[in-house]
Design a protein that fits this description.
Length: 196
């Protein structure tokens, strides 16, 4: 499809617009300017984010999905991304970040990684604020026994399945997992119309 981000592409429609989600799924990713994998993720996101033909900054999003967040990611990286989304301007965002040294350091780490992916050109406060507004950091614990995310997913299936359906939530979940595994290994695509 022309995107650099390669793990998942999701297209959805709302009453207002078409929305696209590009996701990188990483079981272990270190948020550091020294980590090559992190630099690749941010670099691919940055290229896609700036491709006006493929990415709408108002409607589309970039997801980093991890199986677990550490305290730094939860308390600093995720907070930075949330602050960007709740501030009405880049100036207000930068002002809040600048009040806490560790948050400022994490922001500068992102700036340095983006600059290295951007042919050495630094990014403005406005640019990094806009980028952060489009990035989400999600944590899922599907691999853990007693997974709260799996329980939530099974509950969504239970609430949304037709009453006449005889399959249990777990059977439906297993079918979805098997289908996506088959499509994933073959580089396939799934739409609401193609699933029966």
């Amino acid at each position: 499809k022309g995107y650099k981000t390669d793990d998942i592409f999701i297209a959805a429609k709302s009453a207002m617009a078409q929305h696209r989600v590009l996701a990188q799924i990483k079981t272990s990713l270190t948020f550091s300017s020294d980590n090559q994998e992190f630099k690749e993720v941010v670099g691919r996101f940055w290229i896609d984010y700036n491709n006006a033909n493929l990415f709408n900054k108002d409607n589309d999003r970039l997801f980093i999905i991890k199986s677990g967040l550490n305290n730094i990611e939860r308390n600093h990286i995720k907070v930075l991304l949330n602050w960007a989304k709740t501030k009405s301007s880049a100036d207000l965002f930068i002002k809040q970040v600048s009040q806490i040294d560790v948050k400022k350091a994490k922001l500068e780490m992102f700036r340095s990684v983006i600059a290295s992916c951007n042919n050495g050109q630094s990014v403005s406060d406005q640019e990094i604020w806009g980028f952060f507004k489009c990035v989400e950091l999600l944590e899922y614990d599907f691999n853990n026994v007693g997974s709260k995310d799996e329980a939530g997913f099974l509950n969504l299936i239970k609430l949304s399945k037709q009453n006449a359906t005889q399959a249990t939530e777990r059977e439906i979940c297993s079918s979805i997992t098997a289908l996506t595994a088959t499509y994933n290994s073959n580089g396939g695509s799934i739409s609401a119309e193609s699933i029966h």
